[in-house]
């Protein structure tokens, strides 16, 4: 059984994706989560990544699940890029560049999961791109802390 997001009651959406509060230092449209005790959607995506990545089918229960799916897709790409990195500095540069790069968004012809997402309206498109970039930037920072061994400064297996 796949893990679903606990953030089922959200009132903000872009397309059919939930806009959820996150703890971040990066600028963007996401509401700010100030409590370090509360888990945000990025914590949830990192926590459930290993379990959810093995599911071929995923029954979407709410809009927050789509945000979780997007982050799972992004984490997969981050891990693929980190395979060739030999130090934290190299990894940080690689993930920073990835986070701000032109990453496909729902509705783009090259977005791999368009069947699960609704293309945002013309008015929502710029805001969605900003939100997704903010998610990618914060997610990249947190992945580094989990993947890079602080004693050796090298990626851990």
UniProtKB/TrEMBL annotation:
It is found in: Cytoplasm, Cytoskeleton. GO terms for cellular component: Arp2/3 protein complex. PANTHER family: ARP2/3 COMPLEX 21 KD SUBUNIT. Keywords: Actin-binding, Cytoplasm, Cytoskeleton. The keyword Glycosyltransferase does not apply. InterPro entries: ARPC3, ARPC3_sf. It comes from Didymodactylos carnosus. This is Actin-related protein 2/3 complex subunit 3. The lineage of its organism: Eukaryota, Metazoa, Spiralia, Gnathifera, Rotifera. GO terms for biological process: Arp2/3 complex-mediated actin nucleation; regulation of actin filament polymerization.
């Amino acid at each position: 059984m796949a893990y679903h997001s606990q953030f089922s009651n959200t009132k903000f959406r872009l397309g059919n994706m939930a806009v959820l509060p996150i703890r971040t230092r990066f600028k963007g449209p996401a509401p700010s989560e100030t409590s370090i005790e509360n888990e945000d959607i990025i914590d949830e995506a990192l926590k459930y990544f290993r379990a959810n990545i093995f599911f071929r089918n995923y029954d979407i229960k709410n809009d927050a699940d789509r945000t979780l799916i997007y982050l799972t897709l992004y984490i997969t790409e981050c891990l693929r890029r980190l395979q060739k990195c030999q130090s934290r500095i190299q990894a940080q540069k690689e993930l920073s560049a990835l986070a701000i790069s032109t990453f496909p968004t729902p509705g783009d012809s090259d977005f791999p999961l368009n069947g699960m997402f609704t293309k945002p309206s013309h008015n929502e498109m710029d805001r969605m791109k900003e939100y997704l970039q903010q998610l990618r930037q914060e997610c990249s920072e947190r992945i580094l802390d989990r993947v890079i061994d602080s004693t050796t400064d090298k990626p851990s297996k």
